């Protein structure tokens, strides 16, 4: 069987097709077989008020696809453009690899993988802003 496998910590929450689901007191595992299901781990979610930096805004846009709040087809091109804009700033090999992975995942309609790749840039972005602020 294929599909997305979610391994959940105790009391961890996940959004599936608009419904918040909370795991019980023990670790759990869900296998999602419906390819078109909208799934977002709430621990990965960025609050709209926190989407204040370029990487966070791109992550938030990818998150909206996962939550079902944006249409994947109409959001694809703007999101690809934003990823391309990030590639103008993040020029190191690791960041480029993350951006390439995010791009390919988006093209392949693997939106969670896209968000996961983009999230790897958050610590780098934080370091850049911290260095700029000194």
Task: Describe what this molecule looks like in 3D.
With 134 residues, the protein is of the alpha+beta class. It folds into 2 domains: 4-41, no CATH class; 48-133. It has helices spanning 54-67, 72-87, 93-107, 111-119, 122-133, and strands at 4-8, 13-16, 19-22, 28-32, 39-41. It has a 3-stranded antiparallel β-sheet. It has a two-stranded antiparallel ribbon with strand order 1-4. β2 and β3 form a beta hairpin. α1 (54-67) runs antiparallel to α4 (111-119). The longest helix is centred in the middle third of the chain and has 16 residues, at 72-87. The protein is globular. The protein starts with a strand and ends with a helix. 19% of the residues are buried.
Kindly summarize this structure in a few lines.
The chain is built from five helices and five strands, in the order E-E-E-E-E-H-H-H-H-H.
Number of helices: 5
Domain count: the total is 2
Quaternary class: single chain
Largest sheet: 3 strands, antiparallel
The proportion of residues forming helix, as a percent range, comes to: 40-55%
Strand content: 15-25%
What are the SSEs and their pairings?
Layout: E1 4-8, E2 13-16, E3 19-22, E4 28-32, E5 39-41, H1 54-67, H2 72-87, H3 93-107, H4 111-119, H5 122-133
